[in-house]
Amino acid sequence: MVSDSFEEEQLTLGSLDFDQDLLAIRRNVSDLLKALKTLHEELKTLQQEEVDLTSLTDVKDQIIHPQIIDHKNAGVRAYVACCLCDMLRLYAPDAPYTLKQLRTIFGLFKKQILSLKDREQTYYNEAYYLLESLVQVRCIVLATDFPDAEKFVTGMFEDFYTLNKTQGTHNVELLLTSILSQLVEESDIIPPKVIKIILSHLLTPNTVSNIINKGDTPMITQSFKNPGFNLSKAICTENMDIMTRQVNHYFSEEFNDVSKEEDQARLLENLKKLHRLAIAIWKAVPEIITNVIGHIEQELLTDDISARLLATETIGEMLSYFPSRVNFISEHKTVYSSWLTRINDKASQVRNAWTESVPFIIKNRNDVSKEVTDALLERLNDIDERVRVTACKAFGQLDLQTLLSKFRGKKLETNLSNRLRDVKTLVHVQAFETVGTIYNMAYESLVSGNTEAEELANWIPSQVLKQIFLADPEINSLIDEVITEKILPFDSDDSTRTRRLLSMINSLDENARKAFYGLPVRQIKLAQYFGVLIQLAKRYNGGTLKDFEIPKEQLEKNISSIIEYLSAVFPDKVNAKSQFESFLKNNNSRSYDLILTCLNSESSYKSVRRAIDELRSPKKEYLLKNDKSLLLPLLYRSSFIFFNESNVLPTLNICKDPQMPLFKTAHEYLHKISISHPAIMKRHINGLTSLVVEIEESRLGKSGDFLKAIASLTSKFPNTIMMDDNEEFFRALKSIALNGSYAEAEQAIKIIKFLYSGNLDNKDYSKLVIEIVDGCFKDLFLIKNTPVFVTRLASLAKLCRHLPKFVESYSSELTPFLIKEVLLKNDTISTEDEPEWIDENEIDETTGEPLLENEILAKSFALKILVNRLIVLTKDENAMVLATPVFKLLISLINNTGEIVPMKLGSTPEYYKNRLLLTAGLLLLKLGKYPMYDRVIRPSDVNRLIHLAQNPCLQVRKIFLEKLIFYLTSEKISFRFFPLLFLVAFEPDTELRRYITTWLHACFQKQQRPTSATLSSIESYKRMELELLLPRLIHMLAHHPDLFDITDVNEIRDAKVSANCIIYYLSIIATEANISYLYYLSQRVKQYSDVLAAPHITIEDATEAERNIDRYNETGSEGDDEREVDTDRAFMKAKTPHEEVDEAKNPENSPSRILYLLSDLSSLLIRQFHEIKSWPLSTWPGKRSLSPDIFSPMISGVVARQIAKTVYLPEEFNSGHITEPMIRAALSKRNFKANIKAKKTGTERDLALGNASLREPSSTNFSKKRTGPKLSSKKPKEKKSKLSTLQESSEVRRSGRLRDRIVNYSLVLDEEEDENEEQESEEESNSDSEA
């Protein structure tokens, strides 16, 4: 039975029919090819295990014969290879050849497969068949049994990877992958070189291909496209366990070899290659590199900085590759935790590497901890500037969605804002780039009302613009660039661009708006000078004059003067000057024309942008490379970009719809542009007047901003609007002046005033004014405290100031009414829960009505009417008759902190008193602008203004100090008011303190600016010596209402508080150059008597005494009151000999002892400054008299010598242990230059960051029992002093560059009040308020 079944099976098996003798026809190539082809076709049809192997025996032996297998003909070899592969398939699993024969066969196979690189060759299909068959049969595993298997396998990998680079067919790549994978799978030992080949091709084009190159085993060099990547990845994936062992073994050996390297540079380079390879393997096949990551973790914790740095970079890049088949954070928790600790690595390089990788991790992953995002925020404050630069760049690399989801909040705003004013150039340059990028990304979301986007980016324009106050030329250039290119980039659509501009303005805070609206002041001035330079350059023509009317020497001198001025706006003035000269030498007429287009106020926005783009185009050669770096920043600053004629019409369209979100901002923008660029608005005057008429007729909106714009225009162009052509507009003006809001009424009167001044011959204007005046007085006394009443008073205040002759006939009844019925009566009584301040614009949410009552507004306008009447009488001989009661009223209001109504009539509300106090103080400053009235303001009156400068109400302090700065900047008031600003040493509000401190620094730096003949020819300013403020500041502190009170004597405490203020002054004013001069002035104080000093008298008594002195000097008789006579004598400059002798005998009891105590204190502080700063302190050679209004010279040398010998400062100060720490604390919190060699302290971190915390030494808490701010010998009620009410210490961040930088910047305040006050309002509002 068995024999029968075997025979039956033999009968069913197929057999080979081929019967030709291949060796017999071997010489006939054609016949041999036909025979082999026939053989291949027949073998191909036979199935494994279904063929009679005995029928294959003869052919099997023939095709392995050397004369067949090694035949010279390529076709013969191709068919022989296919036949041999078929034989192996049919004989499988037993090979029909010996190992030696198999080695020859596989050599042929490899050669045929390598021919696949040429797809055009004749036998390509046969080679492909061979490769495919090898994969299917898996006969390649036989190669692992060769004696030289390692060499053969290595050669296969090398050749197949090379082939894969050139053949370019995906199917071939898959087949090659399968063959190589089979070799890896079946090999007992994989040659190390094979592992290197596989791993090296996992490297991506972003990494280096050479892993390690040592000895005689060079690595494969990777092509840019790296076609072997897929082969290696597939091999590793299909043989995961094998490759895991092989990779771990490979890295263990390599790490061991690297550690033995003695050359540190080579060791580090080899280690870097291994780390790059580890990253590549992680990205391709993360499962096979587990143990290697463990080794990298050890490097994270080593003491070797280079190893930690590499490990940090490597783990960071692994983490950033996501999604991955292996979650690094969950699978390698300990490694991740160790990597997190590198946040605070002591080496800045490691922290920098950590920071560099974080943005990609945060952007690509959604499973990182909040610890990582918080740490990135903290890196913005890193002590090392490189880390801060990287952190700034990191935030610019994040996409909007990532920023919105993970980085909204105050911390990002604070940290990035600090970096904008970083002392290191690289940091603040990158910070500006980053914030601009973030805003540009977020703008569309901001416009759509996305609250998250607002939280993320709405602060950016404000913070960018506020850096203008740093007054740094380099920072200013960055501001111009980021605003022009990022925040407000080019957009050819006028409507879209204008909306973006208004949206940005709408987001600005108060100080940023001041900065933004200050840009036109600077722009106009620079445009004028730049334009003149280009015109002169055209004449100069590169040295070949076109116009011989001006001598060449004069022309060159004029050009040099303007270049000197323009160079001052650049950080490197010398280089800027050189580049200007190079630009003029280049003498390109096209560039001249393009620049003039940018500087022309009539150029459209598109024209300006096209001109700028053409100038900076790399394809054009109008400008040299250096010229672009100079002229483009200057063009950004001087061109008509933000305030352009093309923006007006879209803005007017927005102003027509009160429901538009940008409605108010559009009004504001029109007003500002009309002030700074009236010529631009002139072309749109009809549109403005039409809007005013429409609003007045419909009563659906407010026309105040339009009226402001028209007022600004008419101030320059009084003939722009003619009454005959605009009757409806003038009727609207009259209606507004009588029945509109008080703000609108003021502007309406202002417009009428300008038009009247320009048309004096037209009686219609006089008739209009008379009608308005009569309308104001009609039933005026019957409509008290109504909105219309306030409007009429506002109109009258303006009429009294600008058109007084039309109001004078009513003055006899108006003045008594205002004083008796408005000022000295309260219809509103104080309550317990009342606020200290109500803004004019605050609205009651329930009723929609203004919260500020008409009564207090009426009181304010009543005061303005009284003062405005005085202003127009400055040249009248009888002015003082009217001025005396007004001055008494103002002084009374200030002295009583806003209260003038008798207590029996009810207590005045606190917010009433604060507003009246502020109004009185501002009006006193305004009167101080006029010499006649300035002489009336006594030193004690100036001291009373401390009530405003240090008022508990922030709004009072802020408004008063800002107005004071404006007047001092424009040199409108006396220098004696200046010391009030140094009381900001006690200011608790950070922003206000920073604002005033910045201005003081700028003011002093301008004083220090060296004058030159060329500069003075184009820019002149009145120099003032801020050093002379020291005696005045000492005198003011001696009479401070909260210091050295005779009812609560504590000189140590009060001297310590005074020291804070003097230290603050010295920190701004003291330099190595003037320290001797300051010391002289401080000691000079003890050579004078205090004019205001008298024992046991109040400030009121002192004021009366001063006035009696004047009467005595004028009439030769003293006052009738005996107390006044005694007080006068105490103040008289000519003292009696008896008094002199007494003072000489008892100098410690001198009436001026507080003044002398503070003189000693300031001298001590200056000496300590000299010692701490190592400045030379020598005798100042000159002589300087002190101000006679507060200091009277001693006529007796005996008294002078005795006082000079007497030390009035308490003994506790002699050792310096009280004041020296205060000075060091103040100085250590300032940012000094990098080259200052100082011992490292705990504050070094903050100093390096450029935003060191400046905490003034805490004042001693000296709350006193007092009655108000005035000195009194009576026992007062309990009440805290203003210095106690204010915080006694504050923290302020200040930029170190302020100290040593020459600054020149515009500080523009909202001077609507002054615009309305004077006929020359244009000059006030447009003046260049340089510090």
UniProtKB/TrEMBL annotation:
Gene Ontology annotations of biological process type: cell division; DNA repair; mitotic sister chromatid cohesion
Amino acid composition bias (Acidic residues), ranges on this chain: 1309-1331
Q: Which InterPro entries match?
A: ARM-like, ARM-type_fold, Pds5
Q: Name one Pfam family in it.
A: PDS5
Q: Which GO terms describe its cellular component?
A: chromatin; nucleus
Q: Where is it localised?
A: Nucleus
Please tell me whether the keyword Nucleus is annotated for this protein.
Answer: yes
Q: Which keywords appear in this protein's UniProt record, sorted alphabetically?
A: Cell cycle, Cell division, Coiled coil, Mitosis, Nucleus
What's the chief localization of this chain?
nucleus
Stretches assigned to coiled coil: 29-56
According to the record, the segments passing through the membrane are none
Where does the UniProt annotation place the signal sequence?
none
Biased composition range(s): Basic residues = 1263-1282
Question: Which domain of life does this protein belong to?
Answer: Eukaryota
**Residue ranges, annotated region (Disordered):** 1252-1331
Regions of biased composition (Basic and acidic residues) lie at: 1290-1302
Tell me the protein's name.
ARM repeat-containing protein
Species annotation = Nadsonia fulvescens var. elongata DSM 6958
